[in-house]
Amino acid sequence: MHHSGTWPDSTGSPRPKNATSSGSCDWQSPRCAGHSNPTASTSAPTSARSPAPAWSATSTCTSSRAGRAIPTSSPCSAKPKSSANTSKAPTTASPPPSAGRTAPCAAVVKAVVFDLDNTLVNFTKFKSVSVEAAIQAMIDAGLDMTPEQARQRIFQIYDTRGIEYQEVFDDFLRDVLGYVDYRILANGIIAYRRAREGVLVSYPHVNMALLKLARMGLRLAVVSDAPRLQAWMRLVQLGVDGFFDAVVTFDDTGRRKPAPEPFQKALELLGITAAECVMVGDWAERDIVGAREIGMHTVFARYGDAFGTKHSGADFEIDDVLELIPVIERLNRA
């Protein structure tokens, strides 16, 4: 596993793109505390909004989420990147819509929808470090195999059962021992959870960007292929759950991106149209393709790209989540 992407100046302008993507993988979430099948609402609580000063040709409003008052202020203005680097220089022309999708019509952007893993949280690093910690703890508890052998077996199970599979260490021990040694299992689970606490963090500037977007009066949502409980646990641990008006997970539609249902569910909960919404994600073949097909504006989070994607097919690309602010400003000026 590897994590690619760079961290340029956070005030740089985004780059429009108009090609297609490549790469495939399914990174979502590991075993975590609790195995219940929660039935909590897919929508986070939303408080009343009050009018705020206009910042562009269209009016916005302040918002208060989960009892957290969010004052109104002007959005940040991003500076264009240096023209010396022509490969990253912004262009003024919008890319033509891809075949078979509905082109977004002119409309004020009213909401932003985020993917979760590798867009808000560095899931690739979190997953790798946590599994390594669990493997070492199980070996220290008496498991007789090398770390590399254990790693291969564990990820074979993830490949078969899904990266969110909650019984991965149980199956692993049955596979290598013929039974579950609960002492070894307990050591692995505890080590995994301890490592997770230390490495499950948001990308730089995520909190700042969410705050700025909320101050602009935008409604915010998450669309994730993760199970409901795991998605909410990550949002809560990151301390950003209060920003979101809606959280749509695999449990809510039974479909994974790029199927239209998860995106449509988010639009329904937000009460907006596709042309009024921006989708931000790191996985071109799921986040970008699915959102473009139903007419949403698309932003590729290159900072979270784990596949070395050359052509995302997104309307814009960003190397830092704060670059999303001038994207919204540009769309609202168009």
From TrEMBL:
Q: Where is the composition biased (Low complexity)?
A: 38-92
A GO molecular-function annotation: metal ion binding
Q: Which UniProt keywords apply?
A: Hydrolase, Magnesium, Metal-binding
Q: Where is the composition biased (Polar residues)?
A: 7-27
User: What span is annotated as the signal peptide, if there is one?
Assistant: none
Q: Which GO terms describe its biological process?
A: small molecule metabolic process
> Region annotation Disordered: residue ranges?
1-101
Q: Which cofactor does it need?
A: Mg(2+)
Q: Which InterPro entries match?
A: HAD-like_hydrolase, HAD-like_sf, HAD-SF_hydro_IA, HAD-SF_hydro_IA_CTE7, HAD_sf
- Function statement: Catalyzes the dephosphorylation of D,L-glyceraldehyde 3-phosphate in vitro.
Protein name as it appears in the record: Glyceraldehyde 3-phosphate phosphatase
